[in-house]
## 1
Amino acid sequence: MPVKATKARAKAAPRSIQESVNTALAWLQRRGSKRIRDEMEPRYGIRTDKAFGVSMADLRSLAKELGRDHELAAALWTTGWYEARLLATLVDEPERVTAAQMDRWCRDFDNWGICDTACFALFDRTPHALAKVRQWSKRRNEFEKRAAFALLACLALHDKNATDESFLGLLPLIESAADDERNFVKKAVNWALRAIGGRNPKLNVAAVAVARRLADSPQASARWIGKDALRQLASPASAKRIARGGSAER
């Protein structure tokens, strides 16, 4: 066979998953920034022992280049690198994500960045999302419990086909978790309440009622969640936005 033909065939041969992972990790290492790594904890509250320091813009660019690939996502996740896991959430195929995979990844959450990106970019597009909100809301680990309410917020923001009843049925979870004083839990609970209340006038009325009860609570975290949610959900600007079909901001 001619040398040129052999080279062309070799060039066209598909990479193995491990080769793709190695190439992605090398790309992340080249794009890594010590400045970004040094800012992750003091500026953003993201603690991780394995990070390159790559911007989200660069990660999205690489994800677009790689395209959707469920097997690659799984392999990237197992590396344990922060940016590789973020990349995994961006390239995975929502329709192929199983409930068991969501549980495995949730147990690995160790900072709000990976938790929220997984919920915002992937998990809320799976058919298992509502069930996981209920299940994870009972978790003890801070970031696993955060995942329940971050996922609920993302569903409220993104799922245009979800019924009002499905969100009304989940408001009691917000009230039950409002006494959790851990920072990353209470902020996600607040986010979920605001996102539900921002979907439409009917849900706004229900969310405002919850927020008022929480604002009157003797418990500090519940009181903060309620008062902060009311500032947004009960404001005239919010009412106008909701009437136009707008949603609550993060």
## 2
Amino acid sequence: MKIIRSIAEMQAFSEEARMQGKKISFVPTMGFLHEGHLHLIRQARTMGDVLIVSIFVNPIQFGPSEDFKQYPRDWDRDAHLCESGGADVIFAPIVEEMYPEGFQTMVNVPHLSQNLCGISRPTHFQGVATVVAKLFNCTKPHVALFGEKDFQQLAVIKRMVLDLNVDINIISVPTVREAEGLAMSSRNTYLSAEERRSALSLSKALFKVRELFQNGERNARVLIDTTREIITREEGAAIDYIKICDTATLQDVDTITRPAVMALAVKIGNARLIDNVVLKE
């Protein structure tokens, strides 16, 4: 497995692979890998001849008061997991090369970025779209894989690829959960044992909503109130949002008549956790 830190070296590597007729698959990460990442990496391994995993904690997607400096990092463990998952290359650029002095170009997908996490994190998805566009240009993949836990991020990236005619196939991969139902996240490491038990209320609520939907409930307010009631039973759970949105537009819906996503964000201790479930016939 190669470790590449230079953008020019990464581009040259990928260009050579393409010239040899090899298909490149790509998994972008911010490191501190968990089983959800490994699931993406293992799937990506089957989809290409060359597998690139990026590890880059992207500063421009964090707000001024967010956890960029505290975001968990463990390079040695990440490198071992990438290699065990079959990665051929880890691309780990430095911040100063990704965003050199004078950097000013941003990628913005405004309508899909406004709702859900975009309400409390207004610059987040601009930072995500910008770094993903840059990583695509650095690694030159044919296919890139993203988890469905970050549903809004996935929607933004798909829209960016469509709008900018980016010749990359975006593959979405279902959320990987821990045995008790908690969606896997690097930020789960912030949780104490007691907070982890409280965090299980998120998936418990979503699974209950899915059951109600399957039994015929289509009123968004009823489903949102059910979710809120389950989560607020837990002491210390601070709800950022609970919403039901159209899966295509991410606009709120009152009655579910076409595929929708219930998405939520909840602060438990120092961890801001997100999760979702898609509601469709």
